[in-house]
Amino acid sequence: MFRKRMLWMLVAMCFWWAWFGVAMAQDSPPVADHEKMLTPYRLDFSLHEVENGKRINTRQYSMSLIQGVQFQELKIGTRVPVEMKQGEIQYLDVGTNISARVQEIKSVLDLEVHADLSNFAVPDQASKTTMPVLRQLRISGTTVVDIGKPIVIGVVDDPNSKRQFQLEVTATKLK
């Protein structure tokens, strides 16, 4: 008797799950609405190095990402081994790290960016095994961007020189 009840309960649950799944599928948004939620964008970053009001160097970075998804990351650089304790090695990332996230809310594109720029304070340290001295600049921000128009995310002065770094981004909506 107990087995028959369990079998009927199992059959009833299967029918309920099947019906519930069909009902949920009917309430799902059409494919076109789903595709709108997955809008792709390209972010073109320009890192301008300025000295005495004149651009002396510009580096370009680009990434494609989907709105509403977690942070996407771009990393360019070198991993440098540093001995923390006797026999204990830790690696430091030296170079450019940019992470970004976009979110479209009521036709407005919200952009959040985190950029870490690091290099050796003394250029020939990269080839030495001693503890390197690193210079690091960080720019983080959230702003609203207009599609196709460049916007400066942040500007930082290099404390060891008369140089300034400007991070600019242009967002393009992809099809």
**Low-confidence runs (pLDDT<50, min 5 residues)?**
22-26
Strand sequence of the main sheet, in spatial order? Answer: 2-1-8-7
The helix fraction, in percent, is 10-25%
Return Rg in Å: 26 Å
Question: By helix and strand content, what is the structural category?
Answer: alpha+beta
Which of globular, elongated, flat, extended, rod-shaped describes the shape? flat
Number of domains: 2
Walk me through what this model shows.
The protein has 175 residues and is of the alpha+beta class. The chain folds into 2 domains: 30 residues; 136 residues, no CATH class. The chain is 19% helix and 57% strand. The chain contains 2 helices and 8 strands, in the order ααββββββββ. The strands form 2 sheets. A 4-stranded antiparallel β-sheet has the order 2-1-8-7, with no helix packed on it. The protein has a 4-stranded antiparallel β-sheet with strand order 3-4-5-6, with no helix packed on it. 10% of the residues are buried. About 3% of the residues have low confidence.
Summarize the structure.
Helix content is 19%, strand content 57%.
Task: Name some characteristics of this structure.
single chain; 175 residues; alpha+beta; 4-stranded antiparallel beta sheet; 2 helices
Topology diagram in text:
Layout: H1 2-27, H2 31-37, E1 40-51, E2 54-66, E3 72-85, E4 88-105, E5 108-120, E6 134-145, E7 151-157, E8 163-173
Antiparallel strand pairs: 1-2, 1-8, 3-4, 4-5, 5-6, 7-8
